[in-house]
Amino acid sequence: MKQKVIHLIEHSLQDIYGISLPDTENYVEIPTNIELGDFSLPCFTLAKTLKKSPKVIAEELCNHVNYQNNDNDNMISEAKAVNGYLNIFIDRAYFIEQIITDVFNTSYGSSEIGNGKTICMDYSSPNIAKNFHIGHLRTTLIGNSLAKIYSKLGYKVVRINYLGDWGTQFGKLIVAYKKWSNKKIVEEKGIEELLRLYILFGKEAESNPELNDEARAWFTKMEHGNEEALSLWQWFKDISLIEFDRVYKMLHIEFDSYVGESFYMDKVPALVTELKNKKLLVESQGANIINLDDFGMPPCLITKKDGSSIYHSRDIAAALYRKQTYHFEKCLYVTGMEQRLHFSQVFKAIELMGYEWASDLYHIPYGLVSMGGEKLSTRKGNVLYAEDILNEAVSRALNAIEEKNPDLHDKLNTAKKIGIGAVIFHDLSNQLIRDVQFKWDEVLNFDGMTAPYIQYTYARSKSILRKSPNGNGDVDLTCLTDSISYELVKKLALYPDIVKDAAVKFEPYIIARYAYALSNLFNKFYHECRILNADDNIKKSRIVLVDAVQKVICDSMSLLGIECPEEM
Ligand code: ARG
To answer: Could you tell me if the CB of 127 is within 6 A of ligand 1?
Structure first.
């Protein structure tokens, strides 16, 4: 619909002024106040190009658009020029017909803007032998949603789980394992035991610093391919992956690549050579660094005194490799805010190396998650496992179902969709940078801006459809011109722009808020308009509208990674 209006404006600009703008799309607005039309074109920027007053341009365009309307199936009911704006009113019946057809015919909201383009998405990326904590849950959910959004827009998305599987911490773990644990315990307890060993090592090393030397020696052995060291490391990695996989399965999340930091360890020597050739490498106390004084940043460490690679250099090597392998248009890194400096340094280093695509690398930071109110049951002390949170959400959802709808069939599956959906939505319904306060009462509330509220709305629409006769025959959509139905259709019409906006801004909350607003409006429609017991023509058209709404609610929730149960 918007596209048609844009074409109309483009033609008019061509006819009257002989100009064509490449980005008319960016000028056309959808006014929130319905009295200002369905679409509006502010003529202020054009005024500069055309050296005419915006008022005159709006009037000239207005006359032309009104004149041309017959060629456009009478799409427009009226065009008005008001204070330098061209306001376009679409014929309601025409608008409804177009939007409803779009919703059902095409993969609504999708686009071709990403065709032929690749985006690399680096997210989740937990650290081996450490717990998958609530912060990793956030990057996982954000990355998953952004991946779905970009795929919807036609991009090829490479979902990369850049495992934290290399570094001195593995030296520490090997020492701790050999001193204070054994195979049987690790096999029994998994990550919990590895984490215990890691913490214990920290404590012991305080009074016994030589332990650090031992750990460093083991890490050096790893870097030199020592078999014993590597087989222990691989074992720790396998154990960790089994645990991470459980979380991914619960969330139905998959990756295209699990290539982590260890893969880049042996690519750092070539990087060092390149940096030397480009005269970017400086020796400092035995280590190799890139000086970033000129950019107000601390130096970027490339290799340590013993020549081993570090987080920064592995990230630079990874970016070069990804560019070469995937030819990405953009590469996104979803991590907590605290890594901002790290990515600024890495991106700057790549820029200094002369790679102009450094500007296609984006750090997507997010705020902290904290637990407010009630204490969450955890396996151990104050360490929060993502898995525990998801399990608790499911069990709370199950309790709610037992209370509200004990006869529901397939309660457990429904509880999974509700509980996990609630956690996801809570994480994604605000700007990423905002901190998240996790309170069970808010997360699992059935009223308010939550997944259960939206899911309930969806289930309600499904129940209406189940009760309505199949095969509606001829439907007279002009019955939907009343103001509440029309408002709902207009909301549906926004969806394609909402998806694009969320992608451009890297903000899933734009979709979450939209799903909520659409649900709200639907509930208003449901309470104010008779549906199943309305007159036949009206009934048929309203059922079509209900069907369109449920489709868009479900689709928008799926872009967040949330499933909607048919009944609840
Ligand atoms: N493993 C890191 C962590 O848990 C996150 C990695 C983010 N990605 C990257 N390319 N550095 O903090």
So the answer is: yes
- Centroid of ligand 1 to alpha carbon of 139 (angstroms): 10
Minimum CA distance residue for ligand 1 atom 6: 125
Q: pTM score, two decimals?
A: 0.93
Question: For position 27, what pLDDT does the model report?
Answer: 87
Residue 472 has pLDDT above 70, yes or no: no
Is any ligand 1 atom within 6 A of the Cβ of residue 263? no
- Phi and psi angles of residue 515, each rounded to the nearest 5 degrees, phi first: -60, -40
Is the CB of residue 258 less than 8 Å from the CB of residue 244?
no
Considering only CA atoms, which residue is closest to atom 5 of ligand 1?
125
Kindly give, in sequence order, each residue whose CB lies less than 8 Å from that of residue 243, ignoring residues fewer than 6 positions away: 132, 190, 191, 387
Residue 366's pLDDT band, with cuts at 50, 70 and 90, is very high
Give the tens place of pLDDT for each residue, 248-300: 999 999 999 999 999 999 999 999 999 999 999 999 999 999 999 999 999 99
- Distance between CA atoms of residues 182 and 206, nearest Å: 23
DSSP letters of 336-360?
A: EGGGHHHHHHHHHHHHHTT-GGGGG
**Contact by Cβ (8 Å): 136, 162:** no
* Three-class DSSP category at 291: coil
Q: Give all domains of the chain, ordered by start, each with its CATH number.
A: 2-90 (3.30.1360.70), 118-262+327-375 (3.40.50.620), 426-558 (1.10.730.10)
| Residues shown for the chain | 568
Rounded to 5 degrees, φ, ψ at 214 are: -60, -45
Which residue's entry shows tokens 């637990």?
371
Comparing 58-72, 121-135, 140-154, 181-195, which segment has the lowest mean pLDDT?
58-72
Question: Looking at residue 479, what DSSP letter applies?
Answer: G
| Nearest ligand 1 atom, CA 164 | 1
Strand partners, 331: 120, 361
The half-sphere exposure of 489 on its side-chain side, counting CA atoms within 13 A, is 32
- The answer to whether the CB of 165 is under 6 A from ligand 1 is no
Q: Which of 324, 204, 189 is nearest to 267 (CA)?
A: 324
The answer to whether 432 and 142 are in contact (CB under 8 A) is yes
Q: Give the tokens for residue 50.
A: 């055309």
Q: Ligand 1: distance of its center to the CA of 124 in Å?
A: 8
Q: In what order do the strands lie in the sheet with 330-336?
A: 156-160, 118-122, 330-336, 361-366
Residue nearest to atom 11 of ligand 1 (CA): 315
Verify whether ligand 1 is closer than 6 Å to residue 162 (CB atom): yes
Looking up tokens 């704006």 gives: 85
What is the token pair recorded at 521?
């409006």
Ligand 1 pocket member 164 (CB < 6 A): yes
| Ligand 1 proximity of 261 Cβ (cutoff 6 Å) | no
Cβ–ligand 1 distance for 145 under 6 Å, the answer no
